Amino acid sequence: MTQEKGCILWFTGLSGAGKTTISAGVEQKLKTQGYKVELLDGDIVRTNLSKGLGFSKEDRDINIRRIGFVAHLLSRNGVIAITAAISPYKTIRDEIREMEPHFIEVYVKASLEMCEKRDIKGLYAKARSGELKGFTGIDDPYEEPTNPEIICYTDTETIDESIAKVLAYLAKLDYIK
After folding, report:
1. Residue 87: active-site member
2. How far is residue 111's CA from residue 155's CA, in Å, rounded to a whole number?
C-alpha cells in the first residue's frame, strides 16, 4: 500500500481518558493495513527523549514541543505520527498546529470522575491527598480544545467506536483509503 502524505494525530485529554488505548488501537489498525505509522506515547517519550524534565509548566511545554517536533519530522516524511500525551495547555498545542499543516487534534473527552475511576496508578488519589502536586485536572489546569477535529467521548463510546471515528476521519481527508 502506498502512502502519499503523513499527518499528526494529536491525542489530548486527561490522565485516564483513554488516549493511550485509542491511539494504540488506531496504530494497530493502520499497521495492519500497511501504513507507515509511529506512536509517540507521552510516558515513553518522557522516559527517553525528555528524561530529567519535571512537571512544571515550563518542563511540560518543553516536553510537548519535543513530541511535536519529532511528530512533525515523521509527518513530513510520509508517516502518520500519533501522539498520546495529556498536553494540557492550549497555547502549546496551537504552536504544534502552526508548525504542521497536517495536524489533526483528537480530544479524548472523559469526565474527571470517570478518569479517577479508571486510575490504575492511583495518581488522582495521590493528587487529592496532596502527596502529588501539580497534577493535571486536580491542582493544575487542563485547557480543553476549543475546536478539535475529532472528539472521542469515552464516557459513552466504546474503544472500537472511538477508533472507528478516527479512522473514518483519516479516510475522509484521504490520509488512508
Report:
1. yes
2. 7
